[in-house]
Amino acid sequence: MRLSTLLIFPLAFIVTACTQGVPVKQPPITVSLKNNTAADRVVGYTKPVIRTFVPAETSQELQNQYESNPNSRPGGVQRTEITGATCTIDTAEFSAQFQTPAIVHLPKFHGKPSQLRMTCKTPELSTRYTHDPTLDGVVVVETSVAGLIAAAVMTGILASKDNWSYSTGESNVWIDLAEK
Questions:
Q1: pLDDT grade, residue 59 (50/70/90)?
Q2: Euclidean distance between CA atoms 83 and 97, whole angstroms
Q3: What's CA 99's distance to the chain center, in Å?
């Protein structure tokens, strides 16, 4: 099984990227922990920027250009950012509600936490999905024998620490909205 510290939701719904997007104008969102047991297990926080989008429409002229010369298509997902979508995150350990874009302080836990459920909506658009936590710090990048051995050793070391998270650092997390 490949483990990653990226906040990975089904690819149909989410894409992480380095692009900046619109400025976040609200203060960071801190989740509400549901009980003292959950609070005692928190070992830190990640601070992803959660953004919502719809796939960008391209002009007929650009579509024709892409068909005649596929190499002219820009890389990555073409999207239009949607601001002001209302999102909720809920797990057995914590919950939060915010409007996009938002920096959300997601807790890291000692011991595996429950699955994360998220919904985002505007009057015309919505999405819903779930995400399982991953061991904090495990990334398998290289498929060589040495890379796989290093990943196995690192997984064993990190599993002994038993720290779990839903995302890495301060990356942008793009949530794909669909028509209701």
A1: low
A2: 15
A3: 15
**What are the tens digits of pLDDT across the range 82-104?**
999 999 999 999 999 999 999 99
The residue type found at 60 is: Q
Residue whose structure tokens are 């290289």: 142
Rounded Cα distance between 55 and 15, Å, is: 11
Which structure tokens are listed for 44? 């830190």
Smallest Cα–Cα separation from 174: which of 7, 65, 15, 8?
15
Please name the residue that has the structure tokens 């890379």. Answer: 147
Residue 142, CA atoms < 13 Å, CB-side half-sphere: 9
Instruction: Give the 3-state secondary structure of residue 18.
Output: coil
Q: DSSP per residue over 36-83, as a string?
A: HHHHHHEEEEE--EEEEEEEPP--HHHHHHHHH-GGGSPSS--EEEE-
